[in-house]
Description:
The chain is α/β, with parallel strands linked by helices. Helices cover about 40% and strands about 15% of the residues. It has 17 helices and 15 strands. The strands form 3 sheets. The protein has a 7-stranded parallel sheet. Strands 12-11-10-13-14-15 form a 6-stranded parallel sheet, with helices on both faces. Helix 2 (about 60-70) links the parallel strand 2 and strand 3.
Amino acid sequence: MIVVIERKSYVEYDESVTMKALFVSHCNDLSGANKSFLSLIKKLKDRIDITVLCNQDAGGLTDCLDTIGIEYIKANYSWWYIKPRKKRVKQLYRRLVDKHAYKKKWLTSSLLKELNEKKIDIVYTNTSTVDAGIKIAEALGIPHVWHVREFGKEDFEFIPMFSFEKYQSTFQKSKKIIVISEALKKKYCSYVEENKIVKVYNGFEIEKLRSTSLKHDLNKRINIVVTGQVCSGKGQIQAIKAIANLYSERYPVHLYIAGEVDHNYLDPILVDYPDNKKWLSVLGCVKDMYALRNKMDIELVCSRSEAFGRVTLEAMLHSIPVIGSRSGGTPELINDHQTGLLYEYENIDELVCCIKELCNNQKLYEAIVENARKYASNFTIQRTAEEVFEVLKSAGSGTNG
């Protein structure tokens, strides 16, 4: 039996008192969300006493936490969304498995006792895919802040496990909800009142992402990369079709696909292109994206609904021009023909024209590289960390500011 601990009363934090926070992760890999999570922890760990909650024993996240000296706790909580499967039978099976895993009792009295003894002041959840944080916050009687970094269904095709009303009532329990783009803010205004929502753009360790070279030779083979989980929401099929068209017109292009591959999505596409090995390399997960980008000339963002666009800014900082779909949060980052090029989602002809424009116009190419690099340099992790810290302080003090 789980005992709900009496709710604490809160006063405004001052800088002489160290806030104690539980930071909840959704998995133990080094996905884009967890890279942002780690960057934030590194900047906040001297101002907040952070304990991380993980739901897997080993992985890249906890390896990094060990390196920077952050304590973490393991608990067997699961996602409250279902991961998609192409085949109906597999999807039904996945639904049963995920629901069964979700219903397992993991919020034990011993875990709550351990957290209470740490005198945790506030719970912060790093993505919308898990609701463990809000359950812990309720049980401890402390505030919860949700950092939403994805659309869910629109970008990754996550399937809700419950009704809209269930998600709405759960999100409403959070003191604050941080979103990473104006596009996400519009979505979450249907879940909660607008004064609970705070937009905070992702930030980066700028110096680690900047390229040392600004030169690209467009007279040689043109290397083009699309980065991210290989699934329908990320739109790699558009990149494949565009590069196949360009290759057939004798453009010296080569496409690199970097990211975890859903072969149920990718393999049926490649069947239509038996010569793909001449102009396509499927790399899978790439540990050193910096080294890969050193060889790239153009980056594509073909997502249906990119929540923010971490890869967009990473490419800009690396002096690689980005061509992005005019959807989701991408147009918030790309000013067409200034900091990149935009095309209508799924309009392959327009995407092909954008690639040709960059290949054939060295002056435009160089202008976009320079403009984008300067623009992306504003997205510092220092700024993001400061804004998140202010949200946590506000939530902890009970104010609505």
